Amino acid sequence: KIFNLRNPSQKMSKSSPSVQSRILITDSPQEIQSKITLAVTDSIKFVTYNPINRPGISNLLDIYCSITGEEESLSKSFEWRMANELKSQLVEVLVEELRPIQ
To answer: Quick one: where's region Disordered (predicted)?
Structure first.
């Protein structure tokens, strides 16, 4: 399940009132970058996968893994990296994934 970018306790949905809460297949690369950059995370410095205590970061990792086909164990390769590095990588894979269908 993929969660809302602005409120990671809720499922991502096109009916959410905030357009920043979801990625649409029609979003431009700039819109995708803006939405991922503004995605809610926490103040913990480094990336770790913990859906209960770190739902925002875990949601971004889930999105990344669902696109790349890698498992959450990939989070080990993001450990000791900053959230903005994860967000940058996620923007890259999202833009590449959506490019052929746009």
So the answer is: 1-20
